[in-house]
């Protein structure tokens, strides 16, 4: 039976011992770090986690708040992240630099969804806008190229991600079309000579637009509804493109923007897939995007819990530590129960994805519900952490909890609001139940 040793390490089966790392206080890290055995992780995952933790601590953590305040990460930081091998793990190996074929001692093609889960969790330790500035915008803007791009398009655009010669953002949402993707109004009309499309429309909440070179853009080429939607890769240096940053409560470094397209000429060979057949391509993005947001919620709730727990031990009121009050301990253990249970659910979903992929029929509703739950947990964690911190929890620059309190709305609404995702989960689960023969 594994047990904690006197050195603070955990026995990991016969002959193996892992030194406890990271936050050593209760519930400061996922249980597999230094508490419970897990069937999901092996030595390659531990090496990978150590590598990612060291990179984040050395190159990001000390500067992230400064970049968040400035509204962007410097190009030098973006390049360093790209060269670390941690950026753009979805890019197929044939388009990656040769020197990035091994990461933390593991061949690139041996990385699995649990390596990705570790990366998502570690990157959530910094203000949420910064990962979007480092690579996150391309992580949502480039996947449609993997899914529907021609070989020529992939070779033209993907290798440049690692040098920042190319970078992408994704433009789906419009002022009048958010979760209802089929309602987009931006149009693209082919020129008489067939060499270009002329694009007109407005896009909103476009993450990373200020520093992107290209925008993967949903446009209408056909009839109303989902059957008339196409995807074009729009060069953002084109005449007629106007970008204006949106000033949100949080996620300042994410570069959320308005993009206005006025008679923008886009080469015809920038079409992804076929005309009017892009709706399924767009939908492919959402499961993973929502899962990333869900992991982000979990880690940031854990940060709130850790900060509150430490403060409860350090702060004395009326001659005794805050943590000596049963009501404070109850708040913290309630949060711990929620965070730990949610993480176990994420691991189960990750294992299903590991076996069946991101597009399996059973996964969309589970991710939707997990995202709702993650949002509820981080909202609760922010509230309780700020209550325990008192005025310090409301003061900028003192706790991560305060930054998270400004970032969390995007996590809850972005990628699909609670109301939309609840209904999606209902519909998907009833479809699956009907397939199994349930009579409802």
Automatic annotation (TrEMBL):
Keywords: FAD, Flavoprotein, Oxidoreductase. One of its GO terms (biological process) is fatty acid beta-oxidation using acyl-CoA dehydrogenase. Its cofactor is FAD. Transmembrane segments: none annotated. Residues 43-163 form the Acyl-CoA dehydrogenase/oxidase N-terminal domain. The keyword Flavoprotein applies. The keyword Oxidoreductase applies. One of its GO terms (molecular function) is acyl-CoA dehydrogenase activity. Residues 279-423 form the Acyl-CoA dehydrogenase/oxidase C-terminal domain. InterPro entries: Acyl-CoA_dehydrogenase (IPR050741), Acyl-CoA_DH_CS (IPR006089), Acyl-CoA_Oxase/DH_mid-dom (IPR006091), Acyl-CoA_Oxase/DH_mid-dom_sf (IPR046373), AcylCo_DH-like_C (IPR036250), AcylCo_DH/oxidase_C (IPR009075), AcylCoA_DH/ox_N (IPR013786), AcylCoA_DH/ox_N_sf (IPR037069). One of its GO terms (cellular component) is cytoplasm. Residues 169-264 form the Acyl-CoA oxidase/dehydrogenase middle domain. Belongs to the acyl-CoA dehydrogenase family. This is Acyl-CoA dehydrogenase domain-containing protein.
């Amino acid at each position: 039976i594994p047990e904690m040793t006197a050195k603070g390490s955990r026995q990991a089966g016969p002959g193996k011992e892992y030194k406890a790392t990271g936050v050593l206080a209760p519930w400061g890290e996922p249980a597999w770090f230094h508490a419970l055995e897990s069937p999901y992780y092996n030595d390659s995952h531990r090496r990978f986690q150590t590598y990612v933790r060291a990179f984040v601590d050395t190159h990001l953590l000390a500067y992230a708040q400064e970049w968040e305040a400035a509204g962007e990460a410097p190009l030098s930081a973006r390049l360093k992240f790209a060269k670390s091998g941690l950026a753009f793990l979805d890019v197929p190996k044939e388009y990656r630099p040769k020197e990035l074929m091994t990461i933390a001692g593991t061949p690139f093609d041996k990385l699995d969804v649990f390596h990705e889960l570790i990366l998502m969790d570690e990157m959530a330790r910094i203000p949420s806008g910064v990962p979007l500035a480092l690579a996150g915008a391309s992580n949502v803007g480039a996947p449609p190229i993997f899914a529907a791009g021609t070989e020529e398009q992939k070779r033209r655009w993907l290798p440049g991600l690692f040098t920042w010669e190319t970078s992408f953002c994704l433009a789906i949402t419009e002022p009048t079309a958010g979760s209802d993707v089929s309602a987009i109004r931006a149009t693209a009309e082919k020129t008489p000579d067939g060499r270009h499309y002329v694009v007109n429309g407005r896009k909103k909440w476009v993450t990373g637009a200020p520093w992107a070179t290209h925008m993967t853009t949903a446009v209408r080429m056909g009839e109303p509804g989902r059957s008339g939607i196409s995807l074009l890769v729009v060069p953002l240096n084109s005449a007629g493109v106007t970008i204006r940053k949106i000033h949100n409560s949080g996620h300042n470094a994410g570069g959320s923007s308005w993009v206005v397209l006025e008679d923008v000429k886009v080469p015809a060979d920038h079409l992804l897939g076929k005309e009017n057949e892009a709706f399924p391509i767009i939908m492919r993005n959402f499961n993973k995007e929502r899962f990333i947001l869900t992991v982000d919620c979990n880690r940031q709730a854990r940060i709130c819990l850790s900060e509150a727990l430490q403060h409860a031990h350090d702060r004395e009121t009326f001659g005794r530590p805050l943590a000596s009050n049963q009501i404070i301990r109850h708040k913290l253990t309630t949060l711990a129960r929620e965070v730990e249970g949610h993480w176990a659910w994420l691991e189960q979903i990750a294992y299903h994805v590991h076996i069946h992929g991101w597009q399996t029929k059973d996964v969309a509703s589970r991710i939707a519900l997990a995202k709702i739950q993650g949002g509820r947990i981080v909202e609760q964690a922010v509230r309780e952490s700020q209550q325990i911190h008192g005025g310090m929890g409301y003061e900028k620059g003192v706790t991560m909890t305060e930054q998270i309190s400004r970032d969390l709305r995007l996590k809850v609404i972005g990628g699909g609001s609670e109301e939309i995702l609840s209904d999606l989960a209902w519909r998907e689960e009833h479809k699956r139940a009907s397939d199994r023969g349930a009579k409802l």
